[in-house]
Write a structure and sequence with these properties.
single chain, about 500 residues, alpha/beta, FAD/NAD(P)-binding domain, D-Amino Acid Oxidase, Chain A, domain 2, 3 domains, 7-stranded mixed sheet, 5-stranded mixed β-barrel, 15 helices, 18 strands, membrane, squalene monooxygenase activity
């Protein structure tokens, strides 16, 4: 199999075949848009795999593929330590995948903080929700400064055999006349020179603002809200070694330790709030924080008046059927970061892709590779669909601004956390991505809806309460069904959307 146990001689043979196949179109080729022909830049590298972007997933893939004997070229615009405000919490399921990939060293020596569960605040109440034990052991996530983690992964990539790291920006993916991606054209950051990389497979991993995605698909991310970030210093968190979720009005606030002295706070800002009002909005939101976090947030605002923000986006996973290329990570699929699932999904995607490529005898067999990539889109649903639906459904409930019945779900959700060990552990297994079965998610979601209905109807089921209960059920269904439709993973996705129209009909009848 290409890459598995490959010798340098085998790698040279694959390179020779690649050059021979691409020779007829290397001199002058149509651009990715198929418009006029342009002079081709010189071929500077030939590899089994070309990876665009050396963030969490790109660097991890480069390291793992290189260790397995593939030749890899990875392009990254800036190899210095990134300074980002997201991608700082890795759920237990993600930490497990990281170690299965052999990259556990990337979280060592970076002052990472163990995450043992969450603390949830709702009004004047709070509840701590630990991750449920597995085989007698308590699962653990980890939070850290994003840049330190990425640099650990990049170190592993650079040290892996067969990996070439380039500081460059991608200009286009170059294709043959049949539309098969043969590699990328790039501009070097060091001297501005242009070059071409030939590769059997090109992987786009260049993040939420992906340039490579635009070359592969017309699907665009939709902005759901904005996170404004604060870095709190020397704050004693209410729940040690925990993430914190404040169910504030109108949308949630997150906080978790990222270092022995630092904690990250992310304040969700609705799209309706103008950028010039962010500062005023955040100061108003501090009134809903626990005292220790409020003091830390105000101190952070005083110390760093320049506000740092990051758009939160939703990008459904739409398969790109293009030979020779695939998009992964935030380039391919995004959900609201409320649950901190992004890196876990990306790493699990990467692990699955590596396993599937290992089943291909030779990457030069593009049809065999394409067959495995096709199965990737189906198999990834086992770990990705639950993460996608959970994140967006929880955000819809916790940021219920346009639906008068979803606040009933908020109340019920908080009470559901406290109800018993089964409800608590089931919820936290999903949140920690320890249990990724879609039907388990759907059952818990509608159990919360049922709990909200029971609380609404009892003890006296007046007609108005029964009507409210009906609207709660329909509102819950309206939240989760479109998300399940996009994933197509449970029987609920098979129900026609026209059934949701029954709510208006019954409402008219009851008037």
């Amino acid at each position: 199999m290409a890459g598995r146990g490959s010798t340098s001689e085998a790698a040279r043979e694959r390179t020779a075949r690649l050059l021979a196949q691409m020779a007829p179109v290397a001199a002058a080729t149509a651009g990715s848009s198929g418009r006029r022909k342009t002079a081709a830049p010189p071929v500077t590298h030939t590899a089994d795999v070309c990876i665009v972007g050396a963030g969490v997933l790109g660097a991890a893939l480069a390291a793992v593929l290189g260790r397995k004997g593939y030749t890899v070229v990875v392009l990254e615009r800036d190899w210095s330590e990134p300074n980002r405000i997201v991608g700082e919490l890795l759920q237990p399921g993600g930490l497990r995948v990281l170690r299965e990939l052999g990259l556990g060293e990337a979280v060592e020596g970076i002052d990472g903080q163990a995450i043992e569960g969450y603390g949830v605040f709702y009004g004047e109440e709070a509840v701590r929700l630990p991750y449920p034990p597995e085989a007698g052991e308590a699962p653990m996530g980890i939070a850290f400064h994003h840049g330190r983690f990425v640099m650990g992964l990049r170190k592993a990539a650079r040290e892996a055999p067969g990996v070439t790291a380039l500081a460059a920006t991608v200009n286009r993916m170059w294709e043959d006349e049949e539309g098969t991606v043969l590699g990328v054209d790039y501009t070097s950051k060091d001297d501005g020179s242009k070059g071409r990389i030939n590769a059997w497979l090109t992987i786009a991993c260049d993040g939420f603002a992906s340039r490579a995605r635009k070359l592969l698909t017309k699907t665009k991310p939709a902005k759901t809200s904005t996170f404004l970030a604060l870095e709190l210093e020397d704050v004693e968190l209410p729940f040690p070694n925990s993430g914190h979720v404040i169910l504030a009005d109108p949308s949630p606030i997150l906080c978790y330790p990222i270092g022995s002295r630092e904690a990250r706070m992310l304040i969700d800002i609705p799209n309706s709030v103008p950028g010039k009002e962010y500062g005023e909005y955040v100061r108003a939101m501090t009134e809903q924080m626990p005292p220790a976090l409020r003091a830390g947030a105000l101190a952070a605002l005083e110390k760093s008046p320049k506000l740092r923000t990051m758009p939160n986006s939703y990008l459904p996973a739409v398969p790109e059927r293009k030979l020779g290329a695939i998009a992964l990570g935030d380039s391919f699929n995004m959900r609201h970061p409320l649950t901190g699932a992004g890196m876990t999904v990306a790493l699990a995607d990467g692990k699955l892709l590596v396993e599937l490529l290992g089943e291909v005898d030779d990457l030069s067999d593009r049809k065999a590779t394409a067959k495995k990539l096709k199965s990737f889109y189906t198999l990834r649903k086992e770990h990705a669909s639950t993460a996608n639906v959970l994140a967006n459904a929880l955000y819809a409930v916790f940021a219920a601004r346009d639906n008068e019945y979803l606040p009933f779900m908020q109340d019920a959700c908080f009470e559901y956390f406290k109800l018993n060990r089964i409800t608590r552990d089931g919820t936290m297994s999903l949140l920690g991505l320890l249990d990724t079965r879609p039907y388990v998610l759907v059952s818990h979601f509608f159990a919360v809806a049922a709990y909200a209905i029971v609380k609404t109807v009892l003890p006296l089921p007046y007609p108005t309460r029964i009507a409210q209960a009906f609207h709660i059920l329909m509102s819950a269904t309206r939240v989760i069904k479109p998300l399940l439709d996009n994933e197509n993973v449970t029987a609920l996705a098979l129900l026609p959307n026209s059934l949701l129209g029954i709510e208006a009909s019954i409402s008219d009848f009851m008037k």
